[in-house]
Fold each of these.
Amino acid sequence: MAEGSAAVPSTELLEWPKKDKRRFLHAVYRVGDLDRTIKFYTECFGMKLLRKRDIPEEKYSNAFLGFGPEESHFVVELTYNYGVTSYDIGTGFGHFAIATPDVYKMVEDIRAKGGNITREPGPVKGGSSVIAFVKDPDGYIFELIQRASTPEPLCQVMLRVGDLDRSVKFYEKVVQSKITFFLDFCFSN
Ligand SMILES: C[C@@H](O)C(=O)SC[C@H](NC(=O)CC[C@H](N)C(=O)O)C(=O)NCC(=O)O
Ligand SMILES: [Zn+2]
């Protein structure tokens, strides 16, 4: 089965950001211990802590981490609600993905630092991309994808949807994003 095919010609994709300055800024999710996650993401994934904010009157803190400044890079925004130490992640969230030139080496580095590798490196089922999965301290999954070095290593958020075409229509029409890569194998069943 084909791994996937570009849905939009790459020349158009390359030209598009020069005209349309909108972009994904961040994904926000809740964690049970901000410092524990910051330590894991900086030491195991190589992210940098970009900024923190604390809102005591609302009883929550945020931390922003990524592989570059927010002005030019997609980042994760962690939210810690005072006193809440764990969350039910549910089944809709799939994974974040980090691109790296050597998944095997990154997995060994993470394992040596005590990281939880939940899927060993190797070609993705039904395709050829080399991937691995790592579970973070709250249970969120990060996929490591082997790719040539890229200015944007934090390259994907996988969410499970109930109707792929319905979501594509919504994202194209309402959010005005474009399909950058149409996978031939379907969303989860
Ligand atoms: C394209 C790459 O970024 C992927 O994430 S494909 C990874 C692949 N995904 C699925 O199988 C999705 C369906 C699944 N039922 C789900 O709901 O997660 C995957 O996880 N493959 C497993 C493997 O070991 O290769
Ligand atoms: Zn993925």
Amino acid sequence: MEAIQYSSLVKTQSYINGGWHSSNQRFPIFNPANQRCLLEVEDCGLLGVEQAIEAAKAAQKSWAAKSANERGSLLRAWYQLILQHQDDLARILTQEQGKPFAEAKGEIGYGAAFLDWFAEEGKRCYGDVIPAPAGDKRIIVVKQPVGVVAAVTPWNFPNAMIARKAAAALAAGCCFVVRPAQLTPISALALAQLADDAGIPPGVFNVVVGEDAKGMGKVLTESPDVAKFTFTGSTAVGKQLIAQCASTVKKVSMELGGNAPFVVFDDADIDAAVQGAIASKYRNAGQTCVCANRFLVQKGVYQQFSEKFAEALSKLKVGDGMQANIDIGPMISEQAKDTVHQLVTQSIDAGAKVLCGGQANEAGQQFYQPTIMTDVSNDMPIAKNEIFGPVAPLIMFEDEQQGIELANDTEYGLAAYFYTRDIGRVWRVGEALEYGMVGINEGIISNAAAPFGGIKQSGNGREGSHYGLDDYTEIKYLCMGGVNS
Ligand SMILES: NC(=O)C1=CN([C@@H]2O[C@H](COP(=O)(O)OP(=O)(O)OC[C@H]3O[C@@H](n4cnc5c(N)ncnc54)[C@H](OP(=O)(O)O)[C@@H]3O)[C@@H](O)[C@H]2O)C=CC1
Ligand SMILES: O=C(O)[C@H](O)CS(=O)(=O)O
């Protein structure tokens, strides 16, 4: 792990009950840019997960008993330390996950923004006083922390996906156990070091690392001491985890897969649409759940958009994210790269054409060329599946109604984007799209002030914004009688 100033950030053991958990089971972490082993981390195993749940359970009452101000001050201290070590955290992230350093810095800032937001939002966890139907009664509604929260997070945002969940959970008064993806545990452990430095008490924030995703997930989803489970990852895995939570009727929130349409109407500002397309499609080499996945372009501007899009794409530089001026890093694994290429070749067999790219990139074995495909139809593999790679399929449509129908023709409902300058069309299309989040003349929509989440098979629950606390609180109704006696 190169160029880390604050060396204590580089941890190799799970963080449980405020301590570093040693184990003689180890597994290697590789740099996706060059396949070199960065370091080995110690696998805490299923026993470690159980110990982390125990620690969270033991700390739960005292953490919930703190005032929102006290919890907020600790979250803010954590926030400030993350910003203080932003460059180190970004270097760790780029080396274990691959995204370019500038993007990794952005992710660190994005994750920290949730700590900043919920340090304040926890103080606004308001209840209600409701006029009682009978004169001698009083009705009060209070919100209380749900209890111990367990989380499983993906490799594509190994810092922000944890910060986005932990910030709301801790602000609401919940203790937290997270199991990060096997491929990217170092960013999670660095966050734990800074939580420790910030003075967050033992047992409140726990990170368990290990290779046995299924086994560790089973412990987290089936433990009667875990009140709430939150997951970010694929829809297929999310469905399994929801089913596993049923045995203890846990509160569940899911941030799952997506198939985002990016619709360009013939009255759009084409230059703005191209800028938004590049930003949305090629962020993290296309490995985000809100990346534009299908480009629906109205017939009258299809040629102009395609040409300008390809021209802008030719300026992007592919390489090791630790080098300067890199725009697109490696895929997380060779298998991931091969899966993307398979979608490309299957769609070519079905009649699609490659306008640019379409091959592995010479930068290394896990790199794929930024690609644009034309003559794509909505039923081709490259359009039906979540690509999770730097490939942009272009689909032509005739009129507004067809554009909306094609956009909604998917089991997913996370993010959608469209470009138009017609105010009536903004309202008609914005309301007709079946998605949790819609970017209008904008390709980057994620921020801590907004409720992030999807509908249909993209999940449920919201992260960020005022709404983000709801997933970590329970409503209690107090009925007071005999007031006049
Ligand atoms: N809606 C959203 O915000 C996001 C959605 N995603 C979606 O996730 C997919 C890509 O991410 P990817 O990480 O491959 O997704 P996966 O669903 O394969 O993995 C997500 C996490 O779940 C773990 N996991 C996998 N199988 C199980 C299991 N049976 N029990 C418990 N945990 C399990 C993984 O562990 P391990 O990696 O160690 O196997 C990882 O930590 C895409 O579909 C993408 O859209 C990704 C990020 C954000
Ligand atoms: O994991 C993801 O893909 C993130 O949720 C996308 S974002 O929130 O960083 O935009």
